[in-house]
Amino acid sequence: MTKAYEFNWRRSVPEELLSGSFFDVWEEVFIGSKEKGEIIYEQDALVKVDEFGFFIYWKSEGKEGQVLELCQVNDIRAGGVPKDARLFSELQSRFKNNLEELSLTICSGTDMVNINYTHIVCSSTDLAKRQRDPRLNEILHPFYDEKRALEIVTTHEPNQDLIQKGLLSQDGLIRYLMSNENAPVFLDRLEIYMDMDQSLSHYYCNSSHNTYLTGRQFGGKSSVEMYRQVLLAGCRCIELDCWDGKGEDQEPIITHGKAMCTDILFKQYKLAKYCDEILGELLLREPLNGYPLEPKIPLPSPNDLKYKIVIKNKRLNQEDEKVELELWKKGQLAQDEDEENEDPSAILTTEDIEQIAMANYRYTGATQHIHPYLSSLVNYAQPIKFQGFDVAEEREICFHMSSFAENTALGHLKTQAIEFVNYNKRQLSRIYPKGTRADSSNFLPQVFWNAGCQMVALNFQTSDLPMQLNQGKFEYNGGCGYLLKPDFMRRKDRIFDPFAESPVDGVIAAQCSVRVISGQFLSDKKVGTYVEVDMYGLPTDTIRKEFRTRMVPANGLNPVYNEEPFVFRKVVLPDLAVLRIAVYDENGKMLGQRILPLDGLQAGYRHISLRTEGNFPMSLPMLFICIELKIYVPDGLGDLMDALSDPRAFLSAQEKRIAQMKAMGIEETDIQNLALIKQQRDDEIRREEYKIDNITIDMVKEDKLYLRILRKHQKENDRLHKRQEKERAQIQKNQVVAIEKMTKSSKNDADLRKDPNVVNLVSQQIKQWSELMDKQHSEQWESYRLQMINENKVQKKLFQQLQSIQIKHLEGLFEKENKDMKMKQAKISVETAKEVANDKTLRNKAEKERRLKEKNSNNTKKFIEERKNAAVRQNKEREKLKKIHEKQLQDLDKMIENVMYIQFN
Q1: Quick one: which residues bind Ca(2+) (predicted)?
Q2: N or C of the chain: less Cβ packing under 10 Å?
């Protein structure tokens, strides 16, 4: 009997192999004796191993699936790329340049010779990229390494055996995904991380309007509890609307004057005394050292004012305040008996009276009669009547501030947006709801944050969208109620237009993609749900009511949306943008919402815990989403961006292509730089078109006008010569007659030679002849000189005419070039419109309009740049031709001078 042996045939199969993963699977099957095999390729196949470890199998959508027996698998090796050029190109386009790194080859067969190769390509590297914000600096925010990954496994994996193996189970992955380590925002942003030592005007301040109200502005209730709740919610600017009280003691009260609200008992002196006594050292009574109340002195910082309460109220003139304060201390300050007292209890609260009050309501502001004691407590927040941005800039008094109703502030934004931003760099501004908001509704604060307004006062009792944006934004920086404005909204040397549509200098525009995958515990009722995703920021960044998932019916517990990503393609100013995610049921009722400022958002797969309408945390409801954050890259600059972000990878890709070409027998010297060649060819064509023949004197002398002038001069010379010949013949004849007459009486030649009359006559004749020759010679030279001058004038004129023809020809070339360029640009615009109209990835009309606007804007910049370059190039050609013409005329003048000098000297 053989000894019993317990054989454990079953091997444990890792959970990853049991649950499987999606791969691209391809193999080359050879049929018969064919040298080239048939390619079988399946995309996104789910590859698994059975629970016993017998088979590995895969199946893709629409296919029957395939199975391999693991007992026939003899090797699984890294790498493996197809030899088929078409398949290689397709895989490379899907997996970029990481194909070799992402591939595995499964070798199987019944012997060692006939081996079948099954190749699988995974996408895990791509998943890792999407889980990280590509905008992060790799030194300050390094990639996760093996050590960090093991820390995550150790922290979140409940199974100790898997921890020892460095593996993460499904349970551990869920724990990690729902932990603080995978929070949707950087956790350091939830603490005080901003510089708190800058001027107070450089911060947004969480502010409240009519803090004491619990409901409507007209007829609403007032409560002290609201002050507690508002302060606990992070508000740092509260409002006390003080009126004279009732009864004999006239204890001051807090109420909304002339608005039929209930009262909170509170008079100026008593108010100031209460503040002084109750607040004690927390009250800022005097200006801080180093920050006197003087022009051009900035406001102190939040750190300087830490644990201090600043009173905002009208203040008396310093001299008047000093005098009245002394009189008050002596008991000699007269009371104003003419001031009208308001008795809120005498106002009825009927609906009719409320409507009358709304129609006639005007904000009259605080009383002008300020008690000197109360006035002495006011320092860094002195409200004044706004007199214009130019006056404020000229005075530069930082402790003066102004309050604006929302409609007034919108008017300033409409007409003087940049001036409003500059004002807020220096001084405080407070924006409050307009008087017609009787229901205590709020305005959108984002438009005023965009202008740098510090105190955007909202009705905290109303949990509407503006309030949600406010509370979501001020969750950052430790919830301290102060947020540092972006750099360009603080510096005096920067100009910022809150309505700008192009990226701000020094700020990198972002691209944000949000894919809503599923929801958990959204409702305990069996209702349909859907999700809306909005973006708020600059007007050009704000996208509302466009991105919405399909409705998942009758499932409020764990709906699966699996929507295509909602892409916010271009976010010009990420520092001011916030992402809003809201869940609604089938009746339009909000089930939860979350506001996430974009500058602290984390990329990757994240669970977003939802908040109530009042921004209070909800215990269970959450959304599972995938966020992708990228740097915005305009169309056509993707390759350039890749090359700039990773030059080595870009060059290595080129080197790989060169190596592949070398393997095919193509030398590197045979590879032409097509872009460079095209540019050179375009330049050569343009130079050939612009080539202008040099104007020479021979070209001028061949001109008809010049030849006609020469013929004219020749005729003039012939006439002159004939006339002079006649003159010479006549003189000669007269002299011969005179000699013959004198010599008739003479007998011999010797006597004639000695005859004084003859000698005198000959002498006179010689002189006459000489004078005639001199005269004729002078006439000839003068005629020649005048002809030369005339010819030179004609030559110069012809030169200038030929130059004008060349200039006209060049301008014609420029005109043709500009016309062709404009036609090309118009064609691009038309093609762009068609491309956007036919783009199936754009979900709706608004998205298409936005995409078209963006493309047109990019095209416009490109067109303007092309026209500028063309204008610069054409001006250079004009200047070049002008210099050539000037030199030609100079050479012509010099040649004429030389000819004239040689001829007449």
Answers
A1: 341
A2: N
